[in-house]
């Protein structure tokens, strides 16, 4: 399979006052198109930092990050923002829905920044909400939805623009077991049926088992690969 993401000798550190704090230490990682990978590790291990670098939210201190052949670490902020809107869908632990907007409006919001006209946006929003099983909830506000339904709206928002890559940061971390299982089943469908490349950070071994590959980070070091299936 073609390579979707290539992380090459990436270091990341932050300055705290005059002290340099290392977060990632010479991390190299290759993710194939259509792969579903889970990143695990204790708090402070660097997994969310690595996810953010892959998604173009953060930049490495040193090293290269190639996503479908584009070295995203070299892009300007404006170009990087356009690249993210086309290629990456984001799923967060706490949904990040806007409470005064309906499910439909929350999903449509990022599409407002694209060249799509109103009819095209409507088609993509309705298709995304149907994909996550919420076609009958599009006029509901977040407070009228369960936590699992809110996360489904967030996933619909992430896939509405048909991105190549989905990045998920603890997508089941705020859900009960049944809702978490439902969300992981949905992510599996997006991976297997639509071929989405998924990079997921999780503390939950049950969620990680649903991915094809699990990688662990410890104190900024990436440990050897585990194939789940």
Structure description:
The protein is an alpha/beta fold and 229 residues long. Helix content is 33%, strand content 28%. The protein is built from 7 helices and 11 strands. The strands form 2 sheets. Strands 3, 6, 7, 8, 9, 10 and 11 form a 7-stranded mixed beta sheet that branches. β7, α6 and β8 form a beta-alpha-beta unit. The longest helix is centred in the C-terminal third of the chain and has 18 residues.
Count every beta strand, where a strand is a DSSP E run of 2 or more residues. Answer: 11
User: What's the overall average pLDDT, rounded?
Assistant: 90
Give the overall silhouette.
Answer: globular
Order of helices and strands: EEEHEEHEHHHEHEHEEE
Helix content, binned percent: 25-40%
Rounded to an integer in angstroms, the radius of gyration calculated over CA atoms is 17 Å
Name the beta content range. Answer: 25-35%
N→C terminal distance: 16 Å
Largest sheet: 7 strands, mixed
Based on helices, strands and strand pairing, what is the structural class? alpha/beta
Low-pLDDT residue intervals, each spanning 5 or more residues: none
- SS element count, helices: 7
What would the keywords be for this entry?
single chain, 229 residues, alpha/beta, 7-stranded mixed sheet, 4-stranded antiparallel sheet, 33% helix, 28% strand, globular
Reconstruct the topology from this structure.
Layout: E1 3-16, E2 19-32, E3 36-40, H1 47-55, E4 62-67, E5 70-71, H2 77-87, E6 88-91, H3 103-108, H4 118-131, H5 147-159, E7 165-169, H6 177-194, E8 197-201, H7 205-208, E9 213-218, E10 221-222, E11 226-227
Parallel strand pairs: 3-8, 3-9, 6-7, 7-8
Antiparallel strand pairs: 1-2, 1-4, 4-5, 9-10, 9-11
């Amino acid at each position: 399979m073609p390579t979707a993401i290539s992380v090459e000798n990436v270091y990341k550190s932050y300055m705290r006052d005059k002290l340099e704090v290392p977060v990632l230490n010479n991390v190299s990682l290759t993710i194939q198109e259509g792969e579903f990978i889970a990143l695990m590790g204790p708090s402070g291990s660097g997994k969310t930092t690595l996810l953010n670098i892959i998604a173009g939210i953060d930049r490495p201190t040193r090293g290269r990050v190639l996503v479908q052949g584009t070295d995203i670490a070299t892009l300007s902020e404006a170009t990087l923002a356009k690249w993210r809107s086309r290629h990456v869908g984001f799923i967060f632990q706490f949904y990040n829905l806007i409470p005064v907007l309906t499910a439909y409006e929350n999903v449509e919001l990022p599409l407002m920044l694209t060249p799509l006209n109103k009819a095209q946006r409507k088609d993509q929003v309705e298709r995304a909400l149907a994909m996550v099983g919420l076609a009958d909830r599009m006029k509901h506000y977040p407070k009228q939805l369960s936590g699992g339904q809110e996360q489904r709206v967030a996933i619909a928002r992430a896939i509405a623009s048909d991105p190549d890559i989905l990045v998920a940061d603890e997508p089941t971390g705020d859900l009960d077991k049944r809702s978490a299982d439902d969300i992981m089943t949905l992510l599996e469908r997006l991976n297997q049926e639509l071929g989405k490349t998924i990079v997921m950070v999780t503390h939950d071994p049950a969620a990680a088992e649903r991915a094809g590959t699990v990688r662990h980070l410890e104190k900024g070091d990436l440990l050897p690969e585990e194939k789940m299936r």
